């Protein structure tokens, strides 16, 4: 069974939206290397519609020397959307042909490497609470963002997690990887 993973940049106050506005001075080589290790195991990516539209507009035209661009452009991308139709313009991108949770259950049963959820807070939340997400890495930067969307919401169910891995970087980033507790 393939593993489904996700990673979120977070501020100390729990903001996960628009990390490019507050993470720039704490993103360090160790964080980049850790992300590199994560994507080395990934051969399929799940995106929501908004994430797909933003990333396709940027990464498809990005410099081929960028390590993330070298990963994201050729990788197989599956897009969850109720509004997009037809062929998608980004290389190796296609619409999911079933409801998200059914599609992911089926994809996890195929051969291949890890599957990563990228650029979609809502997909990560839905898959975590559905019990389909195997690991969630929260990369907490030493900054208070103040404003922006938080990952968890007051109406979320109590969900027990277990720590799978923990590390820090020289600029004070904390990388904590969690999975759902099996009890």
Report on the architecture of this protein.
The protein has 183 residues and is an alpha/beta fold. The chain has an eight-stranded mixed beta sheet. 26% of the residues lie in helices and 27% in strands. The mean pLDDT is 94. It is globular, with a radius of gyration of 16 Å. The longest helix has 12 residues. A hairpin with a 5-residue loop joins strand 7 and strand 8. The chain starts with a strand and ends with a strand. The chain has a single domain, classed as Dihydrofolate Reductase, subunit A (3-Layer(aba) Sandwich), CATH 3.40.430.
User: For the record, what CATH class applies?
Assistant: Alpha Beta
CATH second-level architecture: 3-Layer(aba) Sandwich
For the largest sheet, list the strands in their spatial order: 4-3-2-5-1-6-8-7
Proportion of β residues?
Answer: 25-35%
CATH superfamily: Dihydrofolate Reductase, subunit A
Work out the helix count: 5
Element string (H = helix, E = strand): EHEHHEEHEHEEE
Q: Considering DSSP H and I runs of 4 or more, what fraction of the residues is helical?
A: 25-40%
Uncertain runs: none
Q: Shape, please? A: globular
Mean pLDDT: 94
Number of distinct beta strands: 8
Count of spatially separate domains = 1
């Amino acid at each position: 069974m393939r593993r489904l993973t996700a990673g979120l940049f977070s501020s100390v106050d729990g903001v996960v939206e628009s990390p490019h506005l507050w993470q720039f001075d704490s993103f360090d080589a160790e964080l980049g290397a850790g992300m590199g290790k994560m994507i080395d195991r990934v051969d399929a990516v799940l995106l929501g519609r908004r994430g797909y539209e933003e990333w396709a507009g940027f990464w498809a035209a990005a410099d081929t020397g960028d390590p993330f661009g070298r990963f994201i452009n050729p990788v197989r991308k599956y897009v969850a959307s109720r509004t997009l139709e037809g062929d998608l313009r980004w290389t190796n991108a296609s619409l999911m042909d079933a409801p998200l949770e059914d599609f992911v259950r089926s994809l996890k049963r195929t051969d291949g490497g890890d599957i990563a959820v990228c650029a979609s807070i809502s997909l990560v939340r839905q898959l975590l609470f559905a019990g389909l997400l195997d690991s969630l890495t929260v990369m907490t930067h030493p900054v208070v963002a103040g404003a922006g969307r938080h990952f968890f919401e007051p109406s979320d169910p109590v969900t027990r997690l277990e720590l799978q891995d923990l590390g820090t970087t020289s600029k004070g980033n904390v990388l904590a990887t969690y999975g759902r507790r099996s009890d």
